[in-house]
Design brief:
By secondary structure, the chain is an alpha/beta fold. It folds into three domains: 231 residues, 2-Layer Sandwich (Endonuclease, Chain A); 204 residues, Rossmann fold, CATH 3.40.50; 243 residues, P-loop containing nucleotide triphosphate hydrolases (Rossmann fold, 3-Layer(aba) Sandwich), CATH 3.40.50.300. The chain is 43% helix and 17% strand. It has 28 helices and 23 strands. An eight-stranded mixed beta sheet has the order 1-7-6-5-2-3-4-8, sandwiched between helices. Strands 13-14-12-15-16-11-17 form a seven-stranded parallel beta sheet, sandwiched between helices. It is globular.
Length: 710
């Protein structure tokens, strides 16, 4: 349809007209190319105007944007990530179209940063910043130019910015001029087209320089404590006022009616857990199965606490990894809360946090401030200043420790001195009775308190909150050479123990040897032979996660790296499309690979440690556990990765490689080999006790043990 057939009026104002739907979306959906000058830009408009963007993209259109005001940090990050993805332009375009076509408005708002990222990555949007010469004045014109079929052009000029507020929420007005009405267009619109093209083509004018975003050289000119593009023009006091005021919109938490299109209400066990936490004076640990919704339980609880509050409430969420921080942020947005992410360079987040807390303290209005902090930053010096500021301002705070067992071996005194504390973990405490374990368990209890509510894996399966699964153990044997090396390492480990020191070991030497022995088991040659056989039988399934390496440490060992490459090579030889998902892969690439995995572009992800805890990819249907530690916590976490419910997922599958001694072992096995069998038996029993095919697995383990000496 031509623009001239849309019957658009000449004057608009947001008080009387539905500008967003009747003008912006309507015209944009029939536009081939769109040029825009504006003072302020926000990705929020991209979400609400998705229907118009869909038409622009389908027609092969592009958008050129010149802005004059600062970019919000998350929008700037999306621009940076999109720029990196331009080498995958075609894939970005596919993902953009799917995102625009398949999500409702609420989901699009949740994914507004992704829309912006993929627009940049697909080279459908280019943004330039108007840097005023001499740092004086601002770039303030607000003009839009839409190019349609048969050389038709629509120009609009007025007060509105390229934001949702500018097109909907604020009281704004503008005039529209049409090329098919020649005389008024020539008088009032031609000059705008000429001016835009001159600015864009020549990089500026007498008063401004245009700089394409992102631009690291430009960022070096400005203060590094803020990812904005215009703060150089603001005096410190004015900037502080802006940060504390209009930049941080005070959002009131709202419990959503729908999540992912489904009615939402907290589950009965979640409400019971929160009541138990309340009865324990808001201190305690929820020992809930992986995948049972611990994050939503906590956020729902925070929203209910906020309902009863009379002033500011500060919530601090501690997480092990940045990818978990981002997941928590997305879940909070469902409840109308925009958290501040605190990790990496403190210059990027500290001033935001400081200004929010100062603002909350001075206004004393009822508001919720959420800080999501990666543990490395949480335990650091800069966040200790945040804790001190909260105390100084006499503000109440809540601390949520996700995967709270991570704090057992840390300095608990560095954690926030919050009145309310909630720990979340499927496995908060280790079960052995060593002095080291008892000390760590007590350390954790001294901060969070005891477990106040439990919801087991069996509970979650019985009540239909997790996907049922079948367990497929794959038994392999050490070679004679591998067994000899295993026995030698076991002898050295035993020698590190000092009977005169209560049987304790030299931790440094012992840990090195234990790591070597674990990696020997993880790299047993027969595993790779049987992996090749298994991969052929599975015949390139979708949504498969392969764990290789024991993942005891975040930094990968040489043998783990070799194993990872060996697995990838085997699978690629069999025409599987797989990708690495480890600590060596940057955050942006991880995001892309997760999406490719969900979209079935990839058959599988090869992981070591980073997927052990919390990472939420419900699409995982099959897990191949090639190697693991002896930690019950780890294999329960890994089991949980594959049991989250997802559409079209009725049954999950776990393929677990179990290592037994060589078939040529002596008739009387040594204590260390019997210990190996016992440790593998524990994992077999843990995985098989809740599976759908447990009846067929009875005595399966013992049958293979008996075969060793036959």
């Amino acid at each position: 349809m031509k623009l001239s057939e849309l019957e658009l009026q000449h004057t608009w104002d947001t008080d009387e007209d539905d500008v967003l739907n009747d003008f912006y979306i309507k015209a944009l959906s029939h536009t081939k190319n769109y040029d825009r000058t504006t003072y302020t830009f926000s990705s929020s408009l991209l979400a609400v105007a998705a229907r118009g963007l869909d038409g622009l993209i389908e027609s092969g259109g592009e958008m050129r944007l010149i802005i004059g005001d600062e970019i919000q940090a998350d929008d700037y990050d999306a621009i940076v990530e999109g720029d990196k993805l331009q080498k995958l332009q075609d894939q970005c375009l596919i993902k953009l179209k799917l995102l625009l076509a398949n999500a409702d408005e609420n989901n699009l708002y949740k994914h507004r940063s992704e829309i912006l990222q993929y627009l940049i990555g697909a080279k459908k949007l280019e943004i330039k910043f108007a840097l005023t010469k001499g740092g004086k004045g601002i770039f303030h014109p607000k003009t839009g130019i839409m190019y349609g079929d048969e050389d038709e052009i629509l120009v609009f000029k007025g007060s509105g910015n390229e934001t949702r507020s500018g097109m909907d929420l604020n009281w704004e007005s503008f005039d529209a001029f049409f090329s098919w009405e020649e005389q008024p267009f020539k008088l009032y619109a031609n000059s705008s087209i000429i001016q835009f093209n001159q600015l864009w083509d020549f990089g500026g004018s007498k008063k401004i320089h245009l700089v394409t975003l992102p631009n690291e050289d430009l960022l070096e000119v400005f203060p590094k404590n803020k990812k904005t593009i215009s703060t150089i023009r603001l005096k410190p006091k004015k900037l502080e006022s802006k940060l504390a005021g209009e930049e941080f919109e005070v959002l009131i938490p709202k419990i959503p009616k729908l999540i992912n299109g489904n009615p939402f209400d907290a589950r009965p066990y979640q409400k019971t857990a929160l009541n138990d936490w309340k009865d324990a004076n808001f201190k305690g640990i929820l020992e809930h199965a992986t995948g049972s919704g611990k994050t939503l339980t906590a956020i729902y609880g925070i929203a209910k606490i906020f309902e009863q509050s009379k002033g500011p409430v500060i919530t601090i969420v501690g997480v092990p990894y940045t990818i978990l921080a981002e997941q928590w942020a997305e879940e909070f947005k469902l409840f109308n809360v925009i958290p501040i992410l605190c990790f990496g360079d403190s210059n990027k987040w500290f001033s935001n946090v400081q200004n929010r807390i100062n603002s909350a303290s001075s206004s004393n209005k009822k508001q919720l401030i959420v800080l999501i902090v990666v543990n490395a930053s949480l335990m650091g010096k800069k966040f200790s200043e945040v804790n001190e500021l909260i105390k100084k301002k006499s503000l109440k705070s809540i601390f949520i420790g996700d995967e709270c067992h991570e704090y057992a071996g840390r300095d608990i005194d560095k954690l926030p001195d919050s009145e309310r504390r909630l720990g979340l973990s499927a496995t908060p405490f280790k079960e052995d009775e060593s002095l080291k374990t008892l000390t760590r368990n007590n350390n954790l209890k001294s901060y969070f308190g005891d477990v106040v509510n439990s919801f087991s894996l069996q509970d979650a399966l019985d009540q239909g909150f997790l996907c049922p699964y079948e367990y497929h153990p794959i038994f392999i044997h050490l070679s004679q050479d591998e067994e000899e090396e295993y026995l030698e390492l076991s002898r050295k480990i035993a020698a590190t123990y000092n009977s005169e020191n209560d049987g304790s070991a030299d931790d440094t030497v012992s840990n090195i040897l234990l790591g070597k022995r674990a990696r020997l088991i993880g790299s047993a040659d027969e595993k790779f032979i049987k992996l090749n056989t298994l991969a052929k039988e599975l015949n390139k399934p979708h949504n498969t996660l392969i764990f290789t390496g024991d993942g005891k440490n975040e930094a990968l060992e040489e043998e783990e790296i070799k194993d990872k490459h060996r697995v990838i090579q085997i699978l690629k030889t069999l025409k599987w499309d797989v990708a690495e998902f480890t600590a060596d892969v940057d955050e942006l690439t991880r995001k892309v690979r997760i999406q490719d995995f969900i979209d079935n572009t990839l058959n599988g992800l090869v992981a070591i440690k980073v997927l052990d805890q919390g990472v939420n990819i419900p699409a995982i249907q099959t897990a191949i556990i090639l190697a693991s530690t002896r930690s019950k916590r780890q294999y329960i976490q890994r089991l949980g990765r594959v049991l989250r419910k997802s559409p079209n997922k009725d049954l999950s599958h776990i393929y677990d490689f179990i290592v037994l001694p060589s078939k040529q072992s002596s008739s009387e096995l040594s204590d260390s080999l019997n210990n190996l069998i016992d440790e593998e038996r524990k994992r077999f029993e843990e995985f098989s006790k809740c599976c759908q095919n447990k009846e067929s697995l009875k005595n399966e383990f013992e049958k293979h043990v008996q075969l060793i000496n036959e």
